[in-house]
Amino acid sequence: MGFLTAVGLGLDYSDLRFGRTTQAWLDAGDKLRTQVAEALDGLAAQVEPVGSSSVLGLLAKPIIDLAVGLTSEQPLSSVTAKLQAAGWIYRGDAGDQGGHVFVLECRPWHRVAHLHVVDHDGDQWRAYLHFREVLRRSSQARERYEAVKLRLAEQRPVDRRAYTDGKTAVVTPIIDEVL
């Protein structure tokens, strides 16, 4: 886990700050993706870096976001057991707002990564990958998304739930306008 903090990743739960996604963050995300895939030992159909920390140069919280796509045959209990054995903390089912959420902390209450376990054939999986690709391709989408994040952070610097809800409200319109 030291490779994550060595490149400046990590954020206390009470903080909200941003940095620009660097190549070092992307490399750390790829390494973490590989570690998660190995820990799951074939249980996941696919593991992908997603979110702002997967888009070079984008304003992002210093936290790696990963999505794990599960096929319908894979029981969540097996995945949860393997992820917990690898140090991930299960935070519960966020439903349509993120699937089954896991957090990786380098010390108590200082997270370095989030992981979202969702149906590999489902809408959430497709939305995660599609939004990542839209952000990678479209400077207009990146600018709009960054503006919303900054506005929300100024309005609610410590209300993480309101910040997340506010971001979610603009994701669909950004995707729809770019298509």
Question: Topology of this structure?
Answer:
Blueprint: H1 2-6, E1 11-12, E2 19-20, H2 23-40, E3 46-50, E4 59-60, E5 64-70, H3 76-85, E6 89-93, E7 100-107, E8 110-119, H4 123-137, H5 139-155, H6 160-178
Parallel strand pairs: 5-8
Antiparallel strand pairs: 1-8, 2-4, 3-5, 6-7, 7-8
Helix pairs in contact: 5-6
Provide a descriptive summary of the structure in words:
It is a single chain. By secondary structure, the chain is an alpha+beta fold. It has a single domain, classed as Beta Polymerase, domain 2, CATH 3.30.460.10. The protein has 6 helices and 8 strands; from the N terminus they run αββαβββαβββααα. Strands 1, 3, 5, 6, 7 and 8 form a 6-stranded mixed beta sheet that branches. Strand 7 and strand 8 form a beta hairpin. The longest helix is centred in the C-terminal third of the chain and has 19 residues. The protein is globular. The chain starts with a helix and ends with a helix. 33% of the residues are buried. The model has no long low-confidence stretch (mean pLDDT 92).
CATH fold name, please? Answer: Beta Polymerase, domain 2
Question: Main beta sheet: strand number and arrangement?
Answer: 6 strands, mixed
Q: Secondary-structure element sequence?
A: HEEHEEEHEEEHHH
Q: How many distinct helices?
A: 6
Please tell me the total number of domains.
1
Strand content: 15-25%
Estimated radius of gyration: 15 Å
Please identify the top-level CATH class: Alpha Beta
DSSP, total strands: 8
The low-confidence runs, each spanning 5 or more residues with pLDDT under 50, are: none
Q: Kindly state the mean pLDDT as a whole number?
A: 92
Span between N and C termini? 37 Å
CATH homolog superfamily: Beta Polymerase, domain 2
Class from secondary-structure proportions: alpha+beta
CATH architecture: 2-Layer Sandwich
Give the % helix. 40-55%
Q: Looking at the structure, what is the overall shape?
A: globular
